[in-house]
Structures are given as structure tokens and as C-alpha cells.
Amino acid sequence: MMISAFPGRATLTLLFALINLCVTHIVDASSQTEFEQAYAPIQVGKITTFIPIELRPDAIVKLSSQELDGYTNLAWTPSPQADYYQIFKFDGQTWQLVASRVTTSFYRYNGSGSFKVVACHRFGCSSSNPEDINVSEALAINAFYAQDDNALTAGSAVIVGWQLSGATSAVVTHNQNGGSHATRISSTSLGRQSFTVFGDSQFTLTAYGFNGQSTSTSIQVPIAEENPFLAIGTKSDYKQPLFGLNLDIIERTVFQNEHHLIFSTHDGKLYFFRAQKEQEQPVSWQQEWAIELEGVVNSAPRLTENHLYYNETNSDNQGRTCKVRLADIDSLICTTYEDDALLTSPVIINNDGDYSAKFMDSLAGVNQKATGVYAFYHSGKVKIFDQQDLTPEPQSFTLAEHIEQPVINTPTLFLNKKNIQGLTELILVKDQDQVLGVAVPTASSVQQQSRSFGVLSVNALSEPKPMSVLWKGAL
Length: 475
Description:
The chain is mostly beta strands.
């Protein structure tokens, strides 16, 4: 359309163009949906020309699918320009339209197959579409944290990291100074992103699953200028432990007793501090060593007989168990990596059913418990390692068929020290809103097949054995 420089024709030409915009459409051959023609103005001097253009919304970034009970659940990352979505199913030769106007970012189809989703608005639909990815894990936020080595000031950057499972899309919302900004993240498993902070900030991570399911968690990130320490009032002689060290401590990794303080930081280090006591003086803490980790320690280490045991997970979601003598950092040994994350603490079971390791053999007969360092992996797999050299026992176990959520909380060992009749030693495992009473494996269940089959035992024991769940109870 052109607006003429001649006044007599301008009104008529503009009216014609407006009518043309209202009645001109494009028909999409795949969906038989009519779209309006979009125009872009180009001005040269006093003459403005409107030319037809192709205007499509951004394609969705990720399409996730899940088959359950004869249905296929679909969920996708929303396109910011889309007004609605169209669902297509491949019939073996062509893509057939199964839903023409879906206004949510999820859909449930009665049946199975291969699908694609296109984003649409009144001018057209997106042209490129991702392949659907099968998602089988339950929706959960496993970790959400702020990573920074220095005290934040206005205008500085903070790195926010996350670890998700079962997410089809996710959004990080940054609230500061009365404003809010949402950022859609591309990595729905493990990732991090930098944000600039100008005031005390709150970051909220919202992860989305199928059928509109969602879960959220938030962290607070203060800046130094808006949170000064008050220098008024009466000061005492008390010294806050580790004050001024400027360490980004992972709270759930802190282990402390009368003489030792151990924790991990978000920058991948494991610290050991020893208590220093002087007569009539407050206790002070002296750093003994710091270990450079290959990954992250997610839960508190275990300390027994002056040996420290901890679980570590690297950026590839591979987990391993490590051991170090407090007095000798060079004594560090670790198991090989397992293709499974370790978010729990090691559970140590010795020959008399106690946490304290004695490094002694027991002659308790057929009821002797399988001793060692128990590693409870994210998927529910359980491996037992020798407490001295961390070599794996031949037989591994699994809780996968008994749990609904990944294992992220450290199980608890119930010892029945009061010898209550009818009760025995149990491993208590939390799963959502219930707790499972799991029998401690016997030494014979770990070793018997190994002695029977000799060389063939490695192949025979390659599959994890289900653990025995004695009871379940609601929390």
C-alpha cells in the first residue's frame, strides 16, 4: 500500500489498504487454518509503503513426551509470541493434525506415537519444530543455589545454579527493587546462569511437568550495601565462628562436633577446621586443610575413627564415595564414578550394627549384617563398599521398585539398642510423605553367590538385587 503525496488520493488509498489488510489471508496447507497477512511499513521521504512480510512466532525449544496408561502426555516450552499451539501426529507417511487450538503448554493424547507441536498466532505458525524427548522421571527440584565467592555489591553478577529431574520446562524469576523479571532456562536438567543484582534479590525457580504440574523453590541473595552490620550497641568478647572467611558454604554439608568442623562450598572445596581451646578463652577454629573437589558434596560427611567419608557428584551427574584420614590429606581414596548422582551422605554399618567403625570381623553367624559404607544413589541403587579400601562388594541392591521419588535424603539406621522384642535393625528411607523400613542386607546375601560361582560371580551379580522393604508408614 502507498500513501500518496497528493492529498486528494491519500484518503482513498489508505482506506483501500485497510480494507485489503482485513480481507487478505494466507492458508496454511498442513492445518487448513486461515491467517492474516502481516505488513511492514517502509518510509522514503514523505511516501510510506507497506509491504507484505512473513511473520511467525518463535518455535518451541523443547517438546517432552511421556506414555502412561494408554495416553501420551505432551509438554513444551512456551513460545513468547504464540497465541495457541497445534498438535500433529505422524501416521507413518504424513503429519496429521490432532488438535488445532491448544492454549496451554501441555496436552494429553489418547494413544501413542510420534508428535510435533507448532506455535501459532494470527499471522502464521512456526516452521521449525524439535523432536519429542521421552521423560520418565518424576518432577523434582534437586538443587537450587547462588554461587559466588565474594560479597555482592550493587551492579555485580551472581551465578544461580540448579539441578532438576522430570522437568519439561523451567523459569527463573528475579525479584529486586520492586520489579520482577522472568527468564526461561534452556537446560532442564543441570545448569546455571548469571544475573546482575542492584538490590536485595529473590530468585524463584519454577519447574513444569506434564498436565500443568509445577513445583517451585526460592533463594534470597542480599547485597552488602543494603545489609550493613550495625556498629552500635554493647559488644561482647564472643567471636562468631568463621566470621569474615567469605566462604559460600553449602548449609546441608556442615558437620560439627566438639573438636571438628567440616563443610563443603559451592566453589567445589571441602574444608576441615579443628577447634583450638585456650584457658578462659572462647573456642577458635583453625583451618587444617581444604580439598579441591572434582564435583560437589551435597550432604554432610561422616566422621568415624578419625576418617572422613563423603559422597561427591560431578557435572555429568556421576557419583562416587571418598575417604580421607583427617591427619593426612594425602590418604584420600575414592571409588570409581557410577553413572548415577549421589546426593546423600554415606551410611556406615559396622559388624555390631553401629555407626562407629571398628575395622573388626564378627562371628555373628547367618544373621550377620553386611558391613561397610553404603552409598544410596539418586536412582535408588545401593552399593556397599569395604570400609578400609572402598572396594565394592560383589552384590549391589536397589530400592527403585519401592520408591516414587529419587533418593535425595540420607537414610537413617535404626539400631534397636534397647532390644525391643519384634524389632530388628532397619534402614529408614524417606520417600515423599512416607517412610520405608528396609531390612539391612545380610553378609551371606552379599557374598554367598560370589563363593558359589567363583569367576562367573561378576556376571551373575551384575544386576542389583531388590532390597527387602518390611513396612511402609505415613509421615
